[in-house]
Amino acid sequence: MAATERAIELAVAAARAASDIKAEEIIALDVSEQLVLTDVFLIASGSNERQVGAIVDSVEEALFKLGAKPIRREGKGAGRWVLVDFGDIVVHVQHAEDRVYYALERLWKDCPLIELPADARGTDEGTDA
Fold this sequence. Notes:
α1 (5-20) packs across α2. This protein has helices at residues 5-20, 49-65, 96-102, 104-107; strands spanning 24-30, 40-46, 72-74, 81-85, 89-95. A five-stranded mixed β-sheet has the order 1-2-5-4-3. Helices cover 34% and strands 22% of the residues.
């Protein structure tokens, strides 16, 4: 069972909102086969704590406009790794250093990537993409 259309719609909207705030290395993973609690992990990086917070705020605002409200939010105070659970999708916004350290992409490497539009991929500085 693949991610629902609604989950993909929310992931694309969240990715665009993150990209608008200059998030880096935005990816969406279809985790629906591995997890029963959510369909998509959206992962994005910020270069500092302030940017991580701004990305999270932008994502929450964009998804609120689509009728999605956060069920749970963790880590916003520290600004290093913020997790926002919207039910259909879980958004991870990480400080770039923490992203390298925790390597969520490697942990979930068996999950298929969801193709994001060009305007929703963020900057790819420091990657081979």
